[in-house]
Amino acid sequence: MDFNYQVVSGGVTAPKGFQAAGIHCGLKKEKLDLAVIYSAVPAAGAGVFTVNKVKAAPILVTMEHLAQGQARAVVVNSGNANACTGEKGLADARQMARATAQALGISETEVMVASTGVIGVPIKIDLVEQGIKEAVKSLSTAGGASAAEAIMTTDTFKKELAISLELGGRVVTIGAMAKGSGMIHPNMATMLGFITTDAAIEEKALLAALREANDRSFNMITVDGDTSTNDMVGIMANGEAGNNRITQDHPDFGRFQAALSHIAVELAKLVAKDGEGATKLVEVQVKNARTVADARKAALTVAKSSLVKTAIFGEDANWGRILCAVGYSGAEFDPNRVDIALGDEMMAINGAGLAFNEENAKHILGQKQVIIHIDLKDGEAEATAWGCDLSYDYVKINGSYRT
Amino acid sequence: MDFNYQVVSGGVTAPKGFQAAGIHCGLKKEKLDLAVIYSAVPAAGAGVFTVNKVKAAPILVTMEHLAQGQARAVVVNSGNANACTGEKGLADARQMARATAQALGISETEVMVASTGVIGVPIKIDLVEQGIKEAVKSLSTAGGASAAEAIMTTDTFKKELAISLELGGRVVTIGAMAKGSGMIHPNMATMLGFITTDAAIEEKALLAALREANDRSFNMITVDGDTSTNDMVGIMANGEAGNNRITQDHPDFGRFQAALSHIAVELAKLVAKDGEGATKLVEVQVKNARTVADARKAALTVAKSSLVKTAIFGEDANWGRILCAVGYSGAEFDPNRVDIALGDEMMAINGAGLAFNEENAKHILGQKQVIIHIDLKDGEAEATAWGCDLSYDYVKINGSYRT
């Protein structure tokens, strides 16, 4: 779906009625490590969560809170994931929600809680509680950038974006921030995304829109294939734009959905690009699959393959590894129909290799962004996945921190 | 099941009535690159094959041939995988079977064909044909070692083993050779295993025993999670030991099965140990799972996790990554019951971390073999998987060959 939008500054505080703050509470040595986002008025809330059976305490608490479809604040710390921390961890996550609610004068169940950092170590809840008070005092409509900074772990740059579009004669703004799947510190984990919007939208429609956006974006990126215990994407919609309240049947729903998907995809690409040790962003486009599920499986499996990723790092045009990965992706397709291209250089037609231009292939693989095209010629569905190459630095970052 | 066995020399030529040869036909520059194994008398044959939808031509031909349960010869080349090679590839694989059958004076359908090496490049079939003639002339009862050498690609050592045991008052021998999932050359792939035995065993029982052995061994190892287009394990049983023919109901079936599983597991461990860039063999033992399928999923997913593998390379006791991988393995379990140990050092009980002895953990991770124990405390099933660590050399081998 096409829509006209405008990129605006301010991240999660770009939409009307939102404030945010990022502060240092002491979980990390010096860097910002605690963020709060707050809507001045009640807001609809929705979230999507890791499918890992081992869910961190804050995930469990937030899932419980969002069951009612309302959220007015987000509290998130970096430096400790509060995962695999037993009963104490659960009590600590609840305490984070309670402290935030008290400081803001809202209900505890209106607070989303998230954590990212070391797994299996109890969180220093007293530091977090003091930090929450300080963060709430620091809330401002210019606080988006510091909030985005406070959720970083091994990210090499902060990730935020905001766009405005017209919906029903009103200007609606969507702001977002995310952190990547960096795991540089032992046991670090997690992809987190937080989205704010001043759109008026019914709760069910908000959740439906978030799920679809997530399936096209954060669920289509991979750094190393490890699904974290702490992944979540949360959204708050406070209606301050004054548009007619959007439902799933509303003519504006499609445009809102498209805008949300757009911002989610852009952030997801930044996360993939900033994957640990990454030197290149890899985009895998699958087309003419039997179903969207088949297209997504194929695209994501190729993006995840260690052999494809190392070949791209080494700038080696190993198209056979690409076809091989499609083959074990679980997607339904006919191996004798598949065409594969790297950028504009065709590598294989109908499942068999071509004599290709090595020089052009090398040039394509030398770019900062590499696009892999896979045409299954077996249907009409398509999907795109994003990943990064697998470099020496990935091994260094994840293997040798303590040694 | 317990059984007494004796390790004997000779690899695939240890069982009575088998000859083999490994020669250089020219697909590689200097190294041996073509092997033939031959049974002097007709033999039952069975195979298990890659589940990749993209199957190399020799796999397709061998699947067709083994449909009748008979096999008397194996021909296998290294240096070219004959995968993604279209119609010509299929004709070439058939030609390999035909040339072998003609040279040996047996039926074409009694020949198993396998290839390993570069994907997507047509095989030089004239070199292979000449090589087959030479190999057949060189067949000998001492040829097991050269055959094992001829199927190596990036393997750093050849993998063969033979054992003898008493079955029904006769000495039965099982011999085997394998090559690992080395992919050092662009597009190299493949795990291959070939097993010979002089046991008399009915075809269906042979296939059943092979499948079970394979599920416990080659299907439980992982180097990088990429399932190749060329993987296969083939077995020939020629009855020369003179034992009463084993069927699935026969009292000896269980012991034959256990012996076959034993030899397959030992070879599989050698393959995992020799994974590209590996510095350590990692064994993941899962116990008290609800079902064997759950135990296998959990064990294999942990062995495959890039984050676990890099942590072990870096000798970092990141048990959280282990629990995280169990969590996304798809296995059914209760996260609040899981115990995790590295060697004899407990890391987590009931899903929550312990204060563990860092020094002992470091000592354990410093060994050449690291055992991860995962107790799901949720049933009675168990499984073991093997893998290796993820080192700089894996990236180097797979990324920078051409550059």
Features of this protein?
26% strand, 11 helices, L-amino peptidase D-ALA esterase/amidase, 403 residues, alpha+beta, Ubiquitin-like (UB roll), 6-stranded mixed sheet, 2 domains, homodimer
Write the layout of secondary structure elements.
Two copies of one chain form a homodimer.
Chain A: E1 6-8, E2 18-23, E3 34-39, E4 44-49, H1 57-66, E5 73-80, H2 86-104, E6 111-118, H3 125-138, H4 144-150, E7 159-167, E8 170-179, E9 192-197, H5 203-216, E10 232-237, H6 253-273, E11 281-289, H7 292-304, H8 306-313, H9 319-327, E12 339-342, E13 345-349, E14 352-353, H10 358-365, E15 369-375, E16 381-388, H11 392-399
Parallel strand pairs in A: 5-6, 9-10, 11-15
Antiparallel strand pairs in A: 1-7, 2-3, 3-5, 4-10, 7-8, 8-9, 11-16, 12-13, 12-15, 13-14
Helix pairs in contact in A: 1-2, 2-3, 5-6, 7-9
Molecular structure report:
Two copies of one chain form a homodimer. The first copy, chain A, is of the alpha+beta class and 403 residues long. Chain A has two domains: 6-273, 4-Layer Sandwich (L-amino peptidase D-ALA esterase/amidase); 281-399, Roll (Ubiquitin-like (UB roll)), CATH 3.10.20.340. Chain A contains eleven helices and 16 strands. Chain A has helices spanning 57-66, 86-104, 125-138, 144-150, 203-216, 253-273, 292-304, 306-313, 319-327, 358-365, 392-399, and strands at residues 6-8, 18-23, 34-39, 44-49, 73-80, 111-118, 159-167, 170-179, 192-197, 232-237, 281-289, 339-342, 345-349, 352-353, 369-375, 381-388. Chain A has a six-stranded mixed β-sheet with strand order 1-7-8-9-10-4, sandwiched between helices. The first copy, chain A, has a six-stranded mixed β-sheet with strand order 14-13-12-15-11-16. Chains A and B meet through α8, α9, β14 and α11 of A and α8, α9, β14 and α11 of B.
